[in-house]
Design goal:
With 835 residues, the protein is α/β, with parallel strands linked by helices. The protein has four domains: 211 residues, Up-down Bundle (Growth Hormone, Chain: A), CATH 1.20.1250.20; 247 residues, Growth Hormone, Chain: A (Up-down Bundle); 29 residues, no CATH class; 292 residues, Vaccinia Virus protein VP39 (Rossmann fold, 3-Layer(aba) Sandwich), CATH 3.40.50.150. 64% of the residues lie in helices and 9% in strands.
Length: 835
Amino acid sequence: MNSFFSKFQQVIDYKSSFSTNFVASLFFFSGFVSLLYQVIWMRYLALFFGSDVFSAAISLSAFMGGLSLGSYIAKKIVDRIKNHLLYYGIIEIAIGLYAFFFNDFLFSFKPFLKDIYQEYYLTTPSLYQGFRIFTAALVLIFPTALMGATLPLIVKGFVKTEFELGKYAGFFYSINTVGALAGTLLSAFFLLPTFGLFLTTKIGVVLNILIGVSAIIAIKSFTLDGLSNRKEESTQQQKDSLYQYEEGSSRMALLAIFFSGLAALALEVILTRVLTLSFSTTVYSFPIMLSCFLFGIFFGSYIVSRTIDSRRNVVEYFGIIEVLIAFSVMLVGLLSYLVPSIFGKFLWFIIGLFQNSFSISSVVSKFIVSGLLITFPAILFGATFPIAVKICTPNAEAAGYGTGRVYAANTAGSIFGSLLAGFILIPIFGSRISFIIISGIFLTVGVYLLFAQNCKYSSSKARQTAVNLGVATFAIGICIFFLPRQTVMNYNLQTTTQPELIYHGEGTAHSIDIVRGQSKKIIMMVDGNIEADTSDVQRRHFILKGHLPIMLAPTPDEVAVVGLGLGITLAASEKNPKSKSISLIELNPQMVDAHQYIKNVTDGILEKQKISLRIDDGRNFFSMTDQKFDIITADPIHPRISGVGFLFTKEYYQDIKSRLRKGGIICQWMPMYRISKKSFDVAFRTFSEVFENSSFWYVRGHGLFVASLDEFKIYYPKITKQMNSPIVANDLSSIDIHNEKDFLAHMLMGPKQIKAYLDSLQDTTINTDNNAYLEYKTPAEFLKKTKDIVEGLLPWAGIDPHIIQNISEENRVEFIDVWEKRKKRIIPELAESLS
């Protein structure tokens, strides 16, 4: 280890100069802040555009497109300017100042986006998507282009001889990458959870300005154009060993680095999808995997930068590495098949070592598994950059030109790679076959470099090595192709026996599986996580959630249901004769496709006349539409899943409130499992902050926040009348609700009790878009139990006498008796087995 760090220090001290160390430090923080902004801006854009897959693709493509454009423009001008450190400082300050106003600038387009959404979302969706592309490009192009220009600018400032082209390109690329690695980890695990989006942005702005000011002040001490009066002549020995630039090989390398970037980003997307099936898609899973990619890229670039300038056979070297990447990708595809069967056992083993600390254990386990799979191919990815710069740069005077064109090509390839993986490879071929295709791209690039122009750039030994690796890659590919289909569940659910598969779909955003489990129950999984099943325990809250708001609302004509799942809640809402029309807002098209295979579960609910389907993000819909509803039933998944926390924030509830008519009812599902009492209280206070006239209903392990825009009242004769409906009575009796007293006994707290309970809590925060409290806290609370929350609520449970109106004294006494008996059963019920 000491040897490694000593060698690394030698790299930092290329000329043992303070100037190199100083600029490298600035460039480290430049990479750190750039990644910080990427994370922040992607979250802002998700809030602005919605969380659908097109939104994510548009935002990422615009960001990377700006980087590519910036480096492309830089290649044309950096070789002609002087005092590169001054320009670098100005760029960093400009990025920081822009970041400070980014959010205001972005949301100034909201009125225009809303008008276009209402006019064209259903009639001409291409116009709506086009405006989103235009907006993303407009707000991201300036700062990301500046970011993309910094690498060629810095490299040009340092390179004085041909013998330093690969050295400095690889060195500063690795420094910037390790800064991005630090930004990835600190933003996910400390800055955003601690400070939120606003303050973290300000931290980034301060860092940018400090970087820029430091660079400008340093001009008085040195410039990058004459560092330490270095000699520009290389020794004859160096000249003899130098690679000789050729335009033909340069074009080949540029094409190769484009396709290498394409395949590398496609692999990142596919590996992320594969691993999250076992890891669970929490807000921490992707940063862990990304950090492994970035570490590999940093290390590979660092290693190669030390020796690349002393090589003659650089094109051959590039080709061998590409073939080796092809082999490693195929091997990773094969090994990833083993992850579901071993990750869960490994995690629980680590939990035992860390004395039941789930948060630490899950992070450590994910790092180890991700590192083992990702790091080696990522090291090879990183190695390709300084090699390509060496091949594509004519001479030292064109160092900025060569670096810029390679960075632009590689980043442009990455854009196409992310789109290729998300919209073509995974949906059409699936993750397993996608590994074979990506490996084939790398193998093709390697063969192209080694065998092009009558093998001009390679030796017979290198070609034979490539053939051997190619045969081994092909053999592994055959094994992957014939592997049996595997139904993957998150680590806590994976079993050695495979359930009966009813439906499997890998879409652009999620993987959907419907299986038949034990006791013949139907289970729906999203990205390996069970989101719904037909067990009696699950059906209880699904069916109650469908009927409850309709039975409370004065005029339950127009209903909005957010989230399809297995369709049990939607079916209950549709069965109730009081509902006239139901708008279903579902984000995932694959969820809709899956229902073609389970029509027997909900009697073909999507074909019912009352139902109108809209594929959209629920939050985006409520913030964009002017349509109003009598009832909104919000059925999100657990807030520990990345991105779902936005459906539990104050701002989301405010959007919902604005879409309710007078007397309207909101019914929001709230999990009471795998979440701490503190996080539950945060969710409770957040909901009640927006909806003052709220109540809390309880079904084993599940809570329902139910509120009215008007004073919360329950009209007993109305409930009785609806219970007399055969359709409603049959549906509710299937979950042990046989009369109006059983129904009302599920209300654990009224407005008065909720106020008293929340007043008893000290310093309970509000879950907002800014702090995303639930999204960052709940992933670590996987082992928390429902009992802790229930025991905290029960002392405050009660019913206000005036809430239930027009009820006879006899019925009131009977109801209170039923309610008290149910309250006493709540804790013992938790000890009973689930069925």
